[in-house]
Design goal:
The complex is a heterodimer of chains A (about 140) and B (about 350). Chain A is of the alpha/beta class. Chain A contains two helices and nine strands. In chain A, about 15% of the residues lie in helices and about 35% in strands. Chain B has two domains: about 240 residues, Nucleotidyltransferase, domain 5 (2-Layer Sandwich), CATH 3.30.420; about 45 residues, Arc Repressor Mutant, subunit A (Orthogonal Bundle). Classes of the chains: A alpha/beta (about 140), B alpha/beta (about 350). The interface between A and B is large, with 34 and 40 residues. Chain B: Endonuclease that specifically degrades the RNA of RNA-DNA hybrids.
C-alpha cells in the first residue's frame, strides 16, 4: 500500500488558529470542483425547529439535517492533494486546509437517525475506544 | 392545517407569526403583536396587502384571513375558491377564498366581480380595494404557497403532486372560514382537473356544506370571481415585492409573466442561474422548463440511489479476460469485511 503523508497547511501553517469551518455533508454529488455561494443560496434558507431539527432545500429537493459532533478527542480535517497520483503505488501528499469539530449532516427528505451510516461510523470510535484501550491493572 | 389551529385561538394576526414560528423570536414577536394594535397588521387595501407580503418569509407559505363580517356569522353564506399562478415556473401559487351572505350576493355584481380572466391588472386592483372596503359584508382569505414549498412537495420521497398541494390549500381555506365562524351554506370551487372526483373528495370532508366544483367557475359564479381576484392580485403583488435572499438585485419586470413560453422569463432563467445551486428560490425547480434550463447552465448533480435500485445486487459475473491475469495468492485469502463495518461504510485503508 502506498504511503500517505498528511501535512499541515501548505502556505499558511497557522491553520490551527483558523476558525473552525462549517462543514456540511449533503446527500448528492455535484459534478464540479469549485467555490460555491453557499451562504446566499443555502445557509440563508436553513430553518431550525424546536427539536433542533433543521431543514433546507437544494435545487428544490427538501433536505432534513442535524449537527453531528465528532467524538471527544477527535478533530476533523479537510485535506487537499495538489498532485493527483499517477499510479496506486505512488506516495501521496495531503495538506490540511480546514479543521472542524462538527458536521452538519443532511439527508434527502428524511430526518437523520442512527440508521445513517455516518452516525454509525462515529459510534464505532467509542466502541473502538472501549475495545482497544489498554487494560489497566487494578 | 396549522392555520386552522390558530383560528381557534381566535386572533387572526397570529397566523402570520405562526408561519414564522421557526424563528427563535416567536414569543417575543407574538407578545409584541398582541401589545401593539392589531389593526396595523390588517389588510384593508392594496398597500397593506403589499406590506403583509413583503414581511413574510418568501420561502415559506403564508396565510391571511380578513376579519369575519358579523353578517357572515349570522346568515347563511356562499363561499368561492379559486387559484392563481398555477402554471408559471416562477413565484408562489396563491389560493383565495371570498364569502358573503347569500342574500347580499348582488354586491358582487355591483363590484364587477364577473369573469376575472377578462379583467385588466388595474381593474383587478381596483376591485380588490373595493372588496376590502365592503368588509361589513364580504370576508376573504388567501394562502400563498411558496415556490420552494411547491418543489419540496413535488420532489419529496412521497411525491406530493401539485393537485394534492392545491386541494390541501382549498381545504385549509374552507376550514379557516368555518372555524372563524362563517355560516357556510354553499361552496363553489374552480377546478382544473376532473370536477367530479374533486367534488366527491370535498363532500367527504365537509358533509354539512353544499359543494359545487366546476370548470371555469370563475366566469360562472361571481363569488368565485371575487376569490379569483383576491388570489390573482395577491400573486401579482407577491411577484412585485419579491426580495431575493440570494442577493440578486432585479425587479419583477425582468421576470416576465413566469409562463415558460415567455421570452423574458426564458431569458431570466438563463441569466440568473447559478452553476451549483441552480436558481434562486423564486423558481420552481420541479417545472420541466427549469429542469431543462439547468441541464444546459448548471453542473450535473447526482442524487442517492432510490431504495429499489439499492436492493438489486451488482452483477457478479467474472469477465472472461480475468482468467488470463496473473493473480497473487494472497489476494484470494483476503479477509472479508465484517458486517458491522460494512454497514457503517468503514473499511481499512491504511496498513498499520
Amino acid at each position: 500500500m502506498a504511503t500517505i503523508h498528511i501535512r499541515s497547511g501548505k502556505s499558511n501553517l497557522d491553520c490551527n488558529n483558523r476558525k473552525l469551518s462549517n462543514i456540511q455533508s449533503v446527500p448528492f454529488k455535484i459534478h464540479a470542483d469549485c467555490d460555491a455561494n453557499v451562504n446566499k443560496y443555502f445557509n440563508n434558507y436553513i430553518k431550525t425547529d424546536e427539536k433542533g431539527q433543521t431543514s433546507a432545500s437544494f435545487r428544490g429537493y427538501p433536505l432534513k439535517g442535524k449537527p453531528l459532533g465528532l467524538p471527544e478527542g477527535y478533530v476533523g480535517v479537510v485535506l487537499h492533494e495538489s498532485v493527483k497520483p499517477e499510479t496506486e503505488k505512488c506516495e501521496r501528499k495531503f495538506y490540511v486546509t480546514y479543521k472542524f469539530s462538527k458536521i452538519h449532516y443532511w439527508n434527502w427528505d428524511k430526518a437523520p437517525s442512527d440508521n445513517d451510516s455516518i452516525v454509525q461510523a462515529l459510534q464505532w470510535m467509542d466502541i473502538a475506544e472501549a475495545l482497544h484501550s489498554p487494560i489497566l491493572e487494578e | 392545517m396549522q392555520n386552522v389551529k390558530i383560528l381557534e385561538i381566535g386572533t387572526i394576526e397570529i397566523l402570520k407569526i405562526f408561519d414564522k414560528k421557526k424563528t427563535s423570536k416567536t414569543r417575543q414577536v407574538l407578545s409584541e403583536v398582541i401589545d401593539n394594535k392589531m389593526d396595523s397588521q390588517k389588510i384593508h387595501c392594496l398597500e397593506t396587502l403589499q406590506n403583509f407580503i413583503s414581511e413574510t418569509d418568501n420561502s415559506e407559505n403564508a396565510f391571511y384571513i380578513s376579519d369575519i363580517p358579523e353578517v357572515c356569522k349570522e346568515f347563511p353564506c356562499i363561499l368561492g375558491i379559486d387559484e392563481a399562478g398555477r402554471g408559471p415556473v416562477l413565484g408562489p401559487m396563491v389560493y383565495g377564498t371570498t364569502f358573503c351572505p347569500i342574500n347580499e350576493q348582488m354586491i358582487l355584481v355591483k363590484l364587477d366581480c364577473a369573469d376575472s380572466k377578462a379583467l385588466t391588472e388595474e381593474k383587478r386592483d381596483v376591485i380588490f380595494n373595493n372588496i376590502c372596503k365592503e368588509s361589513k359584508s364580504i370576508g376573504w382569505a388567501v394562502e400563498l404557497i411558496s415556490p420552494n414549498y411547491i418543489c419540496n412537495s413535488m420532489l419529496s420521497r412521497t411525491k406530493h403532486s401539485l393537485n394534492k398541494v392545491s386541494m390541501d390549500s382549498a381545504v385549509a381555506l374552507i376550514k379557516a372560514a368555518a372555524n372563524g365562524g362563517v355560516n357556510i351554506e354553499h361552496i363553489f370551487v374552480d377546478t382544473v382537473g376532473p370536477p367530479e372526483k374533486y367534488q366527491d373528495y370535498l363532500k367527504g370532508l365537509f358533509p354539512k356544506f353544499k359543494i359545487t366544483v366546476s370548470k371555469k367557475a370563475d366566469s360562472i359564479y361571481p363569488i368565485v370571481s371575487a376569490a379569483s381576484i383576491c388570489a390573482k392580485v395577491t400573486r401579482d403583488h407577491a411577484i412585485k415585492v419579491w426580495k431575493f435572499p440570494e442577493g440578486i438585485d432585479i425587479t419583477y419586470k425582468e421576470f416576465g409573466s413566469g409562463y415558460p413560453a415567455d421570452p423574458i422569463t426564458k431569458n431570466f432563467l438563463k441569466r440568473h442561474s447559478d452553476p451549483v445551486f441552480g436558481f434562486p428560490q423564486l423558481v420552481r425547480f420541479s417545472w420541466s422548463t427549469a429542469v431543462n434550463a439547468l441541464e444546459e447552465e448548471a453542473y450535473h448533480v447526482e442524487w442517492e440511489q432510490t431504495e429499489d435500485s439499492k436492493k438489486t445486487p451488482p452483477a457478479n459475473n467474472t469477465s472472461i479476460t480475468s482468467f488470463f491475469k496473473i493473480t497473487s495468492k494472497e489476494k484470494g485469502v483476503q479477509k472479508p469485511v465484517n458486517e458491522f463495518f460494512a454497514q457503517r461504510c468503514l473499511s481499512r485503508n491504511v496498513e498499520l
